[in-house]
Amino acid sequence: MKYKLFVLFVLAALLYTGCGKENDGIQEERGRPEKPEIQMGQEAEADKGTGGRQEAEPEPKPEGPEPTANYKRESESGKVKFDCKIETPDYSAMKNNVHKFLLTGKYYGDEKSMFSKYVEGKEISEKHESTGGEGVPDSVFYIMEDGTAVDIGAGFTYGTGVSKHYSYIGVLNSENQEEYSSYSSGKVSFVSEEEAIEAVKKEMDEIGFSEFEIQFEAYPVSHEVLEDMENLYIEEGSLREEKKKDAWTQEDDAYAVYGYQAKGTLPVMHQWMSLYGTMGFYNVDNAPVSAIYSSRGIEMLFVNHMYYFEDTRETVALKEFDEIAGVVEEKFESILNDASYVVDRAKLFQMVRLNEKQEYVADPVWYFEVAENGESRSVTLVDAATGKEIYME
Fold first, then answer.
1. Which residues 6+ apart lie within 8 Å of 338 measured at CB?
2. CA 123 to chain CA mean position, Å
């Protein structure tokens, strides 16, 4: 199910053997969505060719996010500590006015715009077609004479001939994010992080994603750090010498940009984030949108499907954060070992998952990152309305 990582690997290798497909019963949408009579906030409009699906009136939103709050707490034994910022909008204003949503479809982008912008008029050296499955469109993968690779269909991927060098050394890998970001700080100046994000948003708008609300983050990647990282990969045997880039120059300075779809002020956890342990982390690895933007422009862009939501008109009341934190504390206190646990991240999401009727819904869920003995990390999810832990496979 790790479609994104697979496709990025394919781009790096410039090979195509077919992508892992999702078979989850949610209806897909292709082409640019048309505006219905009723709109929901900034979400994508329904396609009139799919049975006249219409969105409900927008839910009331808090006036704006409050600064993240520091939260500290320690269990009686000292085994479990909370030392984190609560990364959420104005929780006190929204906790009694959160709506539940059904998922009515997926949107994969405007294939005509993708083909026109990235393929049409280019010299194609290879073309590979892959059949989709239930609810998943077919895909076509192109490799151009100049090394550019484009995948259109069940998700969109674009990579220039240079993009493979960024991919080889894990620029879009969460394990490297802190190193790239900290050592590149102040060294990338061709644009700001905000301008890099705007460039990625503009690129997405041009291929049909303008109606979707996405929360973006970015970090700098300087050519000096890229060169150092490449040498390290070669020394460790993770990269063969013949794949080394001829030279890293200031022209290669870039920003790594990634984003998650949002519903109102809350980011959306896609369905795979609740199923797999490593897929549960809110980071660049699992983001449905990721890109590399250099001084030359977009080097790589990956966009997975976006969701259509339908308001169920059911309002849920969320439990107090202290009560939710108590659930997490009790979980780790009950583990019979000598380990210590520090909860260092808390964030409220709308999480996509199956309900008891086997319908895909979006429910408010608290996301916690927990460090064990300051080393290994895990994710704990707690239903924000019921206070029950959501177990991940």
1. none
2. 32
Split into its structural domains, the chain has a count of: 2
Tell me the per-residue pLDDT of 153-205, one tens digit each, with 9 for 90 and over. 999 999 999 999 999 999 999 999 999 999 999 999 999 999 999 999 999 99
Closest CA to 288 of 309, 260, 308, 307: 260
Contact status, residue 326 vs residue 340, Cβ threshold 8 Å: no
Name the token pair of 252. Answer: 């290669």
pLDDT bucket at 379, cuts 50 / 70 / 90 = very high
Shared domain check, 165 and 142: yes
CATH code for the domain in which residue 362 is found = 3.10.450
- The domain boundary, picked from 255, 287, 309, lies at 309
Contact in structure between 392 and 274 (CB atoms under 8 Å): yes
What's the rounded Cα separation, in Å, for the pair 365 and 348? 6
Contacts of 128 (CB under 8 A, 6+ apart): 16, 140, 141
User: Which tens digits make up the pLDDT trace of 245-282?
Assistant: 999 999 999 999 999 999 878 999 998 887 766 789 99
Residue 113 lies in a domain: yes
Average pLDDT (90-109) is: 83
The reply to whether 206 and 187 lie within a common domain is yes
Q: Which of 173, 177, 391, 163 is nearest to 293 (CA)?
A: 163
In contact, 90 and 64? CB cutoff 8 Å: yes
Identify whether residues 326 and 243 lie together within a single domain. no
Say which DSSP state 208 is in: T
Domain that holds residue 179: 3-27+104-309
- Exposure string over 105-131, b if 16+ CB within 10 A, otherwise e: bbbbbbbebbeeebbeeeeeeeeeebe
Is-contact 59 265, C-beta < 8 A? Answer: no
Span 212-245, pLDDT tens digits: 999 999 999 999 999 999 999 999 999 999 999 9
